[in-house]
């Protein structure tokens, strides 16, 4: 093991996923020298094991479902999906798990990349242990940004480790469809992977703890409509079921439930939550708890540390790539402003240095068939927060939806704040609604009055006409 000289930068970023890349991009654009450290592939979870491969798997599934709703196409798409072609296209989107292109991008913005495990070693100091054991010490003049993301959390079940369960990583990178797949969980990863692998030839059984159903963090009707469609597609959904133990016997996974049922499968996916990737990054050297989520202010600065930032999943504000990239832009602007001595207006909630959208304007799309998309709080969440609100519900039954596909089935909810008459939250469920959610995000983030939305005329004939139905229902009831 060798020791190199210490190197000094204005900013050191730990983690080169989309969040870390965007922090580095913004600080470099501001003229700050920046180092970025990555222990795995440059591009991170989203590029290789999450957003990109999962959506590459799901897109043919959704396209086929849409085609089957159209006379003239329906009879042409009755054959099973060509799983080999779908997986091959997935591999193209992950660059075959090689990060050459991402490395070139980092070099192109002028940041220095260090491969290896980055650990804090005191204030403003990061020690990097390279793959060959070489150690480098990077010192930051202004800021260190922790952008290490999150990892799948596995429950402490007897036999689980030896059973080699799938997490989201294995589910998005598998080389073939298992004959039988158990999916434990009912959240986004669970429903998306159940959708994909059922369509690619697996016989999928979902085990959902409790009676809350699927997509419990969205409006109740979202999970209900997705569950109905999954069941129609052949997925066996069992709610109120907990897994007590998992073993692998002669290649077969055996899961035993709390009811004593013994379920066999070729693979088992646990999609039961996430945990921060902060256990081995030296948090203890700066007085923080290893393995913990990091509390931050709206400029993404860690509480009690004027030089340390935590951006993306690690701060547990919104575990979504697009929100992490949004936070990265905010953090980069805040770091640059503080480095140049420019005062940050803490009182401006919508200024360039405040991640205000994390609180009440977080959008999300679930790429199932039907899609589920939402932004802002649900009705229940808004009521728990003390807002006087009213929910407006309408079926998505407009000219645009009927043209989109025969038998179109969807639903929309708008949560209106009765004090200010602004839209606090919106949920759409139905084919193609993922492309509607940005309009709702603009309304929620911009606190657009309902009276003003009357003058935002939806084009005819599009599914966006559902906005008119929502506004009419609010006015007339």
UniProtKB/TrEMBL annotation:
Family: Belongs to the class-I pyridine nucleotide-disulfide oxidoreductase family.
Domain called Pyridine nucleotide-disulphide oxidoreductase dimerisation: residue spans: 362-467
PANTHER family in the cross-refs: DIHYDROLIPOYL DEHYDROGENASE, MITOCHONDRIAL, DISULFIDE OXIDOREDUCTASE
Molecular-function annotations in GO: oxidoreductase activity
Name of the protein this chain belongs to: Dihydrolipoyl dehydrogenase family protein
SUPFAM superfamilies: FAD/NAD(P)-binding domain (SSF51905), FAD/NAD-linked reductases, dimerisation (C-terminal) domain (SSF55424)
Residue span(s) of domain FAD/NAD(P)-binding: 9-322
Organism from which the protein derives: Streptomyces ardesiacus
Sorted UniProt keywords: FAD, Flavoprotein, NAD, Oxidoreductase
Cofactor or coenzyme needed: FAD
Assigned EC number: 1.-.-.-
